[in-house]
Design a protein that fits this description.
- The protein is mainly beta.
- The chain has no helices and 11 strands.
- The strands form 2 sheets. Strands 2, 4, 5, 6, 9, 10 and 11 form a 7-stranded mixed β-sheet that branches. It has a 4-stranded antiparallel β-sheet with strand order 1-3-8-7, with no helix packed on it.
- It is globular and about 40 Å long.
- The N and C termini lie far apart (40 Å).
């Protein structure tokens, strides 16, 4: 079993920045994608950003140009740099790791609150 440990959430003012980190508890072979999702109160969980094993990234339209996903394969860690944060970015952010064959792991979630 793999545990994903997230860190970096917190309270930030609008326009501020945060960096989320997610580390796997052990080395995982055949990782396909690592991603960040978020879920705001009363809303469904949505994909924020994902990065493939080859480094290809994709982002939700709402965060393009503001968020950057990156990964350190040697450390089995994925990061999410969030700039120009808006109140609508407030949510619980979840880390996700998918590996072959059909392995799907989730972190426990970290709260991000954007408020003045």
């Amino acid at each position: 079993q793999v545990q994903l440990v997230e860190s970096g959430g917190g309270l930030v003012q609008p326009g501020g920045s945060l960096t989320l980190s997610c580390a796997a508890s052990r080395s995982v072979s055949s990782i396909e994608t690592m991603a960040w999702y978020r879920q705001a109160p009363g809303k469904t969980r949505e994909l924020v950003a994902a990065i493939s094993s080859g480094g290809i990234t994709n982002y939700a339209d709402s965060v393009k140009g503001r968020f950057t996903i990156s990964r350190d394969n040697a450390k089995n860690t994925v990061y999410l740099r969030m700039n120009s944060l808006k109140p609508e970015d407030t949510a619980v952010y979840y880390c996700n790791l998918r590996a072959w064959p059909n392995l799907d792991y989730w972190g426990q979630g970290t709260q991000v609150t954007v408020s003045s």
